[in-house]
TrEMBL record:
Role summary: Transfers a succinyl group from succinyl-CoA to L-homoserine, forming succinyl-L-homoserine.
Protein name: Homoserine O-succinyltransferase
Pathway(s) served: Amino-acid biosynthesis; L-methionine biosynthesis via de novo pathway; O-succinyl-L-homoserine from L-homoserine: step 1/1
Organism: Caldimonas thermodepolymerans
Example of a GO biological process term: homoserine metabolic process
Length: 380
């Protein structure tokens, strides 16, 4: 297996308004994206990768002159890798509202000539999927070989099967859920409150004040990071190890290595992520609930899906537990859909979908090998 090598982001501007689920619309917008591999002659080998909360269009490869710039799924996507770019044309699109290039709160609102800030409209998973479909239209891709995503990306993959059931052949939904539990919504709300109560937040218009609500962002990241890891992993990596040789008997200074780790992760996050984006994306997570329009009946919601499915969960993922994936599987089986389900016994918690578990990667590789065999010109 080799790396894709250096890649270059592209951007596509849209002048036609994008209607949003909230009733608002974006008058015009830009989407940033990357592509890997080669689109085949009949444009049938395209795979869309949907990103999770703090990721972006930069799925694989590196940026020239930028150290440690590997894409967030570089271990999964590339030549000879489970999602093989020698066989598939892979597309990563940065979602609207993000802080990584696509139109979001940091960009200028054409109606005011100032950054959107808190005035950027609330966006949903369904809005992102609609925008993604428009970009694919421009690329001349009528039907996708597959849509794949983990966590919030998995929600987008599921939504694709409902919004555009005829435009995709396979859905790969990893470490995801058909909606957020009350506990998950609660975690998101605590994180949002940490941000909006930061004195530097200024009602979301902190750009005009030349400040960033870093304190709130740090706390939000700490909360999120704790939920992405399993208790076993935290115990193995840190246990009760002290930062110094002995207790300092302080209520405010760092005493334990786990505290140091969380603060380090929080500091990094607050340097590159936008607070308004964090609010928008966690709200999109909260709102996703396709069964909600069908009286809570997920099987009825999934009845329109026509794709074949691979659903993967991880045993120690308590944020998006295997039970939630099994809900998806049951709803699909109730509709007699073609479903492959893998529950991986992995110790890493929710973050497992980003890591190098060989059993997980073997399942993804086998599934995409099967998809490759369906492509025109594939060896019998």
């Amino acid at each position: 297996m080799t790396s894709i090598g250096h890649v270059t982001p592209q951007s596509m501007h849209f002048d036609e308004p994008l209607p949003l689920r909230s009733g608002a619309s974006l008058r015009d917008y830009t989407l940033v994206y990357e592509t890997y591999g080669t689109l085949n002659a009949d444009r049938s080998n395209a795979v869309l990768v949907c990103h999770a909360l703090n990721a972006s269009h930069h799925v694989a490869g590196t940026y020239a002159g930028v150290p440690k710039s590997e894409g967030w799924w570089d271990n999964l996507v590339g030549p000879g890798k489970p999602l093989d770019t020698d066989k598939f044309f892979v597309i990563g699109i940065n979602n609207l509202g993000s802080c990584f290039g696509s139109t979001g709160p940091m960009h200028v609102n054409p109606a005011t000539g100032k950054p959107y800030g808190a005035d950027f409209p609330v966006v949903t998973v369904e809005d992102w999927v609609l925008a993604q479909s428009r970009l694919l239209d421009r690329l001349g891709i009528e039907r996708l070989a597959a849509v794949i995503g983990g966590s919030l990306g998995g929600m987008q993959a599921l939504s694709w099967t409902l919004q555009f059931p005829e435009r995709m052949r396979h859905c790969v939904a990893i470490a995801t859920a058909p909606n957020l539990s009350a506990q998950n919504i609660a975690f998101n709300e605590v994180a949002r409150r940490a941000i909006v109560t930061d004195p530097d937040f200024h009602g979301g218009h902190y750009y005009a004040h030349g400040v960033v609500p870093k304190r709130g962002l740090r706390v939000a990241r700490m909360i999120g990071h704790i939920t992405y890891l399993s208790d076993d992993v935290m115990e193995e990596k840190f246990g009760r190890e002290l930062r110094a040789s002995e207790l300092g008997y302080s209520t405010q200074e760092i005493e334990f290595q786990i505290e140091s780790y969380l603060r380090h992760q929080a500091d990094k996050f607050s340097d590159y992520f936008d607070a308004n984006t964090y609010l928008l994306i966690t709200r999109a997570l909260d709102y996703f609930d396709p069964a909600g329009e069908h009286g809570g009946d997920l099987a009825r919601a999934m009845a329109v899906a026509r794709a074949k499915f691979l659903v993967i969960s991880f045993t120690t993922d308590w944020r998006f537990s295997p039970a939630r994936s099994r809900e998806i599987v049951k709803a699909l089986l109730d509709n007699r859909r073609d479903v492959t389900y893998a529950e991986i016994d992995a110790p890493h918690g929710h973050d497992a979908f980003l890591l190098d578990d060989p059993r997980y990667h073997a399942v993804v590789r086998a599934y995409f090998d099967r998809i490759a065999q369906e492509l025109p010109g594939a060896a019998a």
